[in-house]
Glutathione S-transferase D9
Amino acid sequence: MDLYYYPTSPPCLSVVLLTRELGLTPNLKVIDITAAEHMESEYRELNIQHTVPCLDDSGFVISESRAILIYLVETYGRSTSLYPSNTKHRATVHQMLFFDQGTIYQRIYDYYIEPVFFSSTPLDENKLKKLEDGMEVLDLMLEKRKWAAGSDRTIADFALFSTVSVAKTFGFDFEKYTNIMEWHSKVQSSMEAYQDLYQAPLETVGELFQNKLADING
């Protein structure tokens, strides 16, 4: 099993964390997106989307991190708690995965990642407001839930944890989002054994972000 990834990417981080949770040891192959390695012909032949992460499981190739999470837990999961069999519970997991992808991660990308890492432009306060609105919705969702999708920890927690962790690293102010902070701390505690997987990459991307932002702002 080969996992093509970039260490500081939130979607990649969620997949790496889940592989450790499931006791899997994929061959980790770094694709340096900052050096445009994802655009090289060899990688594009493997993954026509030329994105990371991408999983090659004995010839079965799949991209999109949340699809990979589902594939891994359905194929290698030892219990149903991470991806419940009950259709209503599973639908809630899907809801949170799609909310993460289409709202929280997308707005983090729009406000922080695209301007700083790709277009070298100042941060846009209007995009910050949209991100804050998304976080407010997530905070309300977590108000009556122990975990992201209900009473059990699921793959939705892996996806959202990685996304929220990067927002924290970039300096997003979570002070008023108390439910998110309580949930994030709980998820982090449940992953203490994997701290080596995410702590160093997050610190690295945080330092890089601050340096690039300082250059942009002069």
Summary: The mean pLDDT is 93. The beta strands are 2-5, 27-30, 54-57, 60-63.
